[in-house]
Amino acid sequence: TMVPDRCFALELPDCTLAHFTLCAHAPGDPPGACQDARLAAILGSPGRNYSLCVPLAPDAGSGARVRAAKLHQRLLQQLRRGQFQQCQLRRLLSYRPGGQPGSAQHGFLLHDPWDCLETRRALIELLRACKEIPHPHLGEFETDPHGQLWQRLWALQDGRQLEVGCALVMPTQEPPLHPVLPDLPSSVVFPSREAARAVLEACTSFIPEVQAVLDLVDQCPKQIQKGKFPVIAIEGLDATGKTTVTQAVSDSLKAVLLKSPPSCVAQWRKIFDDEPTIIRRAFYSLGNYIVASEIAKESTQSPVVVDRYWHSTATYALATEISGGLQHLPPAHHHIYQWPKDLLKPDLVLLLTVSPEERMRRIARRGMEKTREEVELEANNVFRQKVEVSYQRMEDPSCHVIDASPSREKVLQTVLSLIKNHCN
């Protein structure tokens, strides 16, 4: 059996992924309907389906990845406006089989339930305006009288729309690991300071604050060591009592309380939170290295408590980038859950948890403005579960889970007991 050149992973409403490929239908081959009922239901549903993926060369560096991410974000914003508001939008991932880094291309499947001619015209105009794509292609799906699914591929050449290919949609085997996983170390879960720095360095031309962040990072020594006093990182979703517990622990231990990102860069959080994931995660990753230098200094004189650290950066990145449900996360003990080798480790990581219902009650009482991630946690139960499971799979150091539902005094007692047992 020939290995397909390129496959696709489509996120379905039940948070599963349907994988398919495209192949030529040789004359004389007997016609047959698509064997995946889920694909047939989505791609062959009444109306019209269009596919669009942002191209990325297999050997693309940080600059190309940043440009592709910015283009993907711009297309997403456009596909939620105007003529497209009547359409349904799904995540579509294009990839080469074999789990090779650099093969994943992010895109969209747009379903127009009314099969409106204006939708096609708006898509063509949208592609025409995307000068970053040398030869933009638009896929269009249709079902023939035999029940077979086809994709017609359209291209813009000299301003004209031309059909450049037609292929049969065929289900293909799901790969052992999520196809985007090989790209995560160079895009969102950075294994080193330099990997994250390379991404922000590619943003200096359009984000003025980037240079100030890079300057602060470069002032931090690359080789640092923790002092003799313990360092405790406290993690958890918003409204799990993290702020209260970190302050109480700090007071009890007479410890220095630090936050990641540190105050010297936290003033720019809103700017980076509005950027694509690759830029946002590079910013938070470098914030961890800046706070690490503060930890090294302060831990020579007193205990240190850190409000969030690397685990937060990695877990939210995984939950965002891995499409589908919990079953598509990297398996336990995968290297993506390992702490970066060049980042100072805490002695103990505590993960505060409460039930989803209790967390929502606390959020309602606080009445505070919600971050983008907090809105996602509320609206998407699967996203929240992926964050929580990713936290629990982190290794070296792993997270000690603490039920933060009891009274503040009892939670503090539990935390201090753990610190005493693990940090002498």
UniProtKB/TrEMBL annotation:
KW Ribosomal protein (keyword) present: no
EC number(s) per entry: 2.7.4.14
Enzyme class: transferase
Domain of life assignment: Eukaryota
All copies of domain Thymidylate kinase-like, residue ranges: 234-413
Key word Cell cycle present: no
InterPro entries hit by this protein: P-loop_NTPase, Thymidylate_kin-like_dom, UMP-CMP_kinase_2
Family, similarity comment: Belongs to the thymidylate kinase family.
One example GO MF annotation: UMP kinase activity
Localization annotation: Mitochondrion
Major location (coarse): mitochondrion
Protein name stated in the entry: UMP-CMP kinase 2, mitochondrial
Catalytic activity: a 2'-deoxyribonucleoside 5'-diphosphate + ATP = a 2'-deoxyribonucleoside 5'-triphosphate + ADP; a ribonucleoside 5'-diphosphate + ATP = a ribonucleoside 5'-triphosphate + ADP; dCMP + ATP = dCDP + ADP; CMP + ATP = CDP + ADP
Keywords recorded for this protein, A-Z: ATP-binding, Coiled coil, Kinase, Mitochondrion, Nucleotide-binding, Pyrimidine biosynthesis, Transferase, Transit peptide
